[in-house]
Amino acid sequence: MRIKTFEEYQTAYQQSVDDPEGFWAEIGQQFKWRKPWKKVLSWDFNEANVKWYEGGEMNITENALDRHLEERGDQVALIWEPNDPDDEAVSITYRVLHDRVCRFANVLKKHGVKKGDRVCIYLPMVPELTVAVLACARIGAVHSVVFGGFSAKSIADRINDSACTMVITSDGAFRGNKVIPMKETVDTALDQCSTVKSVIVMTRTRTPVSMLKGRDLWWEEEVKHVDSICPAEPMDAEDTLFILYTSGSTGKPKGVVHTCGGYMIFATYTFANVFQYEPGEIHFCTADIGWITGHSYIVYGPLCYGATSVVFEGVPTYPDAGRLWQIVAKHKVNILYTAPTAIRSLMSFGLHFVKDHDLSSLTKLGSVGEPINEEAWQWFKQNIGGSHCPLVDTWWQTETGGIMISPLAGITPEKPTYATLPLPGIQPVLVDENGKEIEGNGVSGNLCIKFPWPGIIRTTYGDHERCKQTYFSTYPGMYFTGDGCLRDEDGYYRITGRVDDVLNVSGHRIGTAEVENAINMHLGVVESAVVGYPHDIKGQGIYAYIITESKPDDAEMFRKDILATVSRIIGPIAKPDKIQFVSGLPKTRSGKIMRRILRKISEGEMNNLGDTSTLLDPAVVEEIKKGAL
Ligand code: WTA
């Protein structure tokens, strides 16, 4: 499965293009199957239909757990580092993890969860989160993990969209110096959900919580009364493994569906190759399991490859800005995979937070989630990687299941800010606005992928048409990523950012329409327009232009109230950084908001607004310019 040299990469890449089915069949054979597949691939991008390893039967947990028991049952699978550095870290071997997953799977079964049922998981970064995810997979239930920073309303929308029958949560969560309620938030969500029959509550903070008889159950109590044997449910390769909600350019987040076989193979193959994982290495991905990065590179990829994976409960700045480096030193971490926003933030605290810690265990570094600027790239490489660790800038998406364009650590020659070259099996193309492929090097355009790979999105839950429309209709015959991209003279790819109305704030994906909808729900708001602007640490900040019914008496207070509404409707991650009250928005005669102008103003580019003659009321632009923040 592992490529070892650049020549091998080139050969593998060529083979994956010449004979994709042969290529992926060979990799597929290295996993544990109950029944072999009948057909490696069938696909039709016009209908958004893709199937990999059809007819094959397997269970991802047999690959992530059972398969390792004989050879490395006593090897540590997970290292859990709690929020408070003075609390003890916990190491969980493959054997113990297997036991805990089987037990919890039996708890799920006991409470009526069956293959195909949807289970919502809303937990902090505790080992139980991984256990819950794998327990669902064990019995063929579909997990839908919701990031702990989302509001009750966001949870309710996600539960209702996929009609979840169970929620798994905790009493509270520790995050830095805060204690955050979890069960209480779930309770509020459940007032709006009729499909949920039971709630399992894990104890973390021992915050007082309401426990309803007949619905709510304690995790610790439940696992006492079940068996530790739970045979894995045989799954068709194309059965759904999980749903993960993500933002698009419309208001409603969509449930990206991934299936068992292809996702497993793609997450594992990319993990092994991009990070060049060597047996015994400690892999630390700082993402939250509530996002795709955590699914693929904390849980499934590392565990299916028999790696040791670190789960960190806290935040990089608690108790101080040296926390990540302290964890690296403490657990002798070899691979550190994090986001540019974290790097930029930690950079700003100064090097003395780095100097106290021994980082000599590090062998490889990775970056994900947003474009990485050269300064952050160099800082990470030099000060954290001691200039000798390869640094992989990995481009991919919730919809792609795993890494698509990235160097292979230590193999692909690096170039700062470039995701470099596609992995074997990935065929990127750049297209112009008319959908025409732009060939050759030294060009830029919209990034599409013209051939399926095993981890590709299969559908958006409950609405296949939406999947077709969003990803396969802009450029017929191709998967459209939503990203702009440059291919330089060497054929290296650099992702320049979203070309649609999706923002990337601190590596979190947020739709402008989602934020606008939330703002518009606030009393006294008539209309709003949201754009992203360059932000030194977050990558992008949120700038909201808001029309109100009347001039607010206390504008500052009104701003704060609006932030409270956005927090309540979506979650604190979607709060605008800047709010400007305006009397009108720049609209065309047909009523379309010209976001281009608002974006320019938010970037401070007042004199370069382009053609404004088609605006209904050009005077409004002058007013907005004057009041710009
Ligand atoms: C952006 C996260 C530049 C991109 C795995 C993409 C990146 C979106 C990179 C997906 C990178 C991710 N360089 N941009 N290395 N990685 N992106 O679904 O805009 O949360 O479309 O998946 O993040 O975000 P998502």
Structure overview:
Its EC number is 6.2.1.1. This protein is of the alpha/beta class and 629 residues long. The chain has a domain at 502-627: GMP Synthetase, Chain A, domain 3 (2-Layer Sandwich), CATH 3.30.300.30. It contains 19 helices and 30 strands. An 8-stranded mixed beta sheet has the order 12-11-8-6-7-14-15-23, with helices on both faces. Strands 5-4-17-16-18-19-20 form a 7-stranded mixed beta sheet, with helices on both faces. A hairpin with an 8-residue loop joins β4 and β5 (90-93). The structure holds 5'-O-[(S)-ethoxy(hydroxy)phosphoryl]adenosine. Residues 246, 291-293, 368-371, 393-398, 419, 481-483, 495, 497-498, 504, 509 line the site of 5'-O-[(S)-ethoxy(hydroxy)phosphoryl]adenosine (WTA).
